[in-house]
Amino acid sequence: MACTNCSTGSKTGGAPQGCQNKGTCGTDSCNKLTVFDWLANMSLPSGQEVFDCVEVRFKNGRKEFFRNTEKLTLIIGDIVATEASPGHDVGIVTLVGELVRVQMKKKGVNPTSADVPKVYRKASQKDIDIWADVQKKEEPMKVKAREIAIQLQLQMKISDIEFQGDGSKATFYYTAEDRVDFRQLIKEYAQAFKTRIEMKQVGFRQEAARLGGIGSCGRELCCSTWLTDFRSVNTTAARYQQLSLNPQKLAGQCGKLKCCLNYELDTYMDALKDFPDFDTKIETERGIAYCQKQDIFKGLMWFAYADNIANWHVIHIDQVKEIVAENKQRKRISSLEDFALEIVAEPKQDFNNAMGQESLTRFDQPKRKKNNNKKRRPNKIVKNDPKK
Question: What residue spans carry the Polar residues bias annotation (predicted)?
Answer without folding.
Answer: 352-362
